[in-house]
Amino acid sequence: MNEQELSKSYDPTEVEGRWYPVWMEKGYFTAAASSDKPPFCIVLPPPNVTGSLHLGHALTASIQDILSRWKRMSGFNVLWLPGTDHAGIATQMVVEKELKKTEGKSRHDLGREEFLQRVWTWKEKYGARIGEQHKVLGASLDWTRERFTMDPGLSRAVREVFVRLHEEKLIYRAAKLINWCPSCRTALSDLEVEHEEKDGSLWHIRYPVEGGELVVATTRPETMLGDTAVAVHPDDERYKHLIGKKVKLPLVGREIPVIADAELVNPAFGTGVVKVTPAHDFNDYQTGLRHSLPMVSIFDDAARTNREAGAYAGLDRYEARKKVLADLVEQGLLEKEDKHKLSVGGCQRCTTVVEPRLSPQWFVKIEPLATPAIQAVEQGRTKFVPENWANTYFSWMRNIMDWCISRQLWWGHQIPAFYCAACSPKPAGQ
Question: CB of 177 within 8 A of CB of 358?
Fold first, then answer.
């Protein structure tokens, strides 16, 4: 009898490469639609088709694989559903960069139809690696049911859900302040903006007012071109007598009101006087709504100054800052500049500094959806381990704003809304 000597060391490539195809051939991971066993289903959180698995994916896949195998061994009909996400912004960026590098062209040079064909070609070439990596991990996914978020069936499902939520008044369209990436030229959700503390400056600018001046402290002097008010705290004795008066906006010359707002102004920060630019700052936007202020937008979709900026039109936002500061110095209106740490939001995909922008977009109404989710935790039907994470959950869910769901991309699901060109022109960027 010939005995085969066991290897002294474990060779995963030999063992795993041999057994996984056997499991697949035997159909061990395939859920049976007609089974009378109790069902157990997990949907794999779809990784972006642009990338490769990282340690976080490996951890999630391992946990889900353990649960799936345990349930199979416990007599359940298990479906662990695999799939990948089309990753609208990331995929479009990857293909655009490749197009620029190899052909020196932009997507606009190709046109939408040809560009989308290039993206599909790229997806067919590189999109399978996520699945292959899961197979190397030994993940017991039902590959007979693999899905891609741009599949025809899922695209129909997206349209159907959008229409249903719109009919239920949970999806609506409005002109609101959103996160805008001037490089990707699209709206972003809050989760697609990454904040980083950076070195900046706090500029103190003199705003002429009847009988004197108010000194305003700001980290973005270029946005003063869109100021529509100056705010002070209603209890600040230094400025009470000025509430209701007018100041003259430097460099622009128009008169804007002095308002009292306890939510916006911290009397102890800076000079205790805050410029209000509702179209370019989220806190100012809420202030503008509270006081019914005009909203003057001074940037286009590339973050270049537009006609509303007057003599400063046609400049990149940072060029506009330099020119504004130079003119303030020349006119003796810049009191001083202090070094200041500030949180700067960047696009998660391209790292470009995000610009708050007033724009017509589509939103999901969150409060009716968040309320039952909060109640599920409050009533103990959903539990957090460890329990203290429930506090983080409550803080997030109770303060969440309506969610911007529209994107100005070519690759991805199109919102099923149509505009009459004869009676109302299609909004820019939609």
Answer: yes
